[in-house]
Design a protein that fits this description.
- By secondary structure, the chain is an alpha/beta fold.
- It has helices at about 50-55, 55-60, 75-80, 80-85, 175-190, 205-225; strands spanning about 1-5, 10-15, 20, 40-45, 65-70, 110, 115-120, 125-130, 140-145, 145-155, 195-200.
- Strands 1-2-3-4-5-6 form a six-stranded mixed β-sheet. Strands 7-8-9-10-11 form a five-stranded mixed β-sheet.
- α5 (about 175-190) packs antiparallel against α6 (about 205-225).
- The chain is globular and about 50 Å long.
Length: about 230
């Protein structure tokens, strides 16, 4: 397992001469494949639709890689151009972070369906829905070298922090993203992972502790912002 620091963290899993990438960044990982013995890049799995994750995906598709994306965000990949043609931009109070969608269509070969398993070689990726940073994000959980590892996208970062606080405001003045993030990190906590690999920042070495820290912070933010309480787990 390798990590390239790009517009996001790009994770490359190698099995013999084959490779699989979690998020694509700028596509610069293509220049590194030969150095680690990868002759065939077979898949790009995306945690969510934002451009820092996927603007280089077409470059990897040109190498023969297939693409799998979260089921609820497929339209923001393979119908991105139609999305932009109908996207309201005037007097718009919908703040969901879809303004960071790709500007061009990215063909999709498979969907990462909630609670299902994506199989590649000897690796089984559990697809855990991870609403929060975006409405249709996914965490991908697998075992590597005896450790249970979660590719967390932008759901949670090291130290129990968020990559972007403003992404929590789905509608003007709303706190839906906070609530969804709490639900998602609680579900991740139940998976008892050993290591979290986020899209930005260092690895999450203390997943359980960082989940607790983030939950406390989000609960407090909700209480301060709207007087709303998040029900205990």
């Amino acid at each position: 397992l390798y990590c390239l620091r790009d517009t996001c963290n790009v994770y490359l899993l190698v099995d013999g001469d084959r490779g699989l990438v979690i998020d694509a960044g700028s596509g610069a990982i293509a220049d590194q494949l030969g150095q680690v013995g990868v002759d065939r890049l077979e898949w790009v799995l995306h945690t969510h639709h934002h451009r820092d994750q996927c603007w280089g995906t077409p470059r990897l598709q040109a190498l023969g890689a297939r693409v799998a994306v979260p089921e609820h965000e497929r339209h923001l990949f393979d119908a991105a151009e139609a999305y932009w043609q109908t996207r309201r931009t005037f007097d718009n109070y919908d703040n969901r972070n879809t303004f960071f969608t790709s500007g061009v269509d990215i063909p999709v070969d498979a969907m990462l369906e909630d609670y299902e398993t994506f199989v590649w070689g000897s690796y089984d990726f559990e697809v855990l829905p991870a609403k929060g940073h975006t409405f249709g994000s996914s965490c991908l959980i697998t075992e590597i070298d005896g450790r249970r590892i979660a590719f967390t996208g932008d759901l949670i970062g090291p130290g129990g922090k968020l990559y972007q606080l403003h992404a929590m405001e789905y509608i003007y003045g709303g706190l839906e993203g906070l609530m969804f993030t709490v639900q998602s990190i609680r579900a991740l906590d139940r998976r008892q992972i050993d290591l979290g690999l986020p899209s930005h920042g260092e690895p999450i070495e203390d997943p359980a502790g960082d989940i607790r820290r983030l939950e406390r912070r989000l609960t407090r933010a909700a209480e301060l912002g709207r007087g709303l309480a998040i029900a205990p787990a």
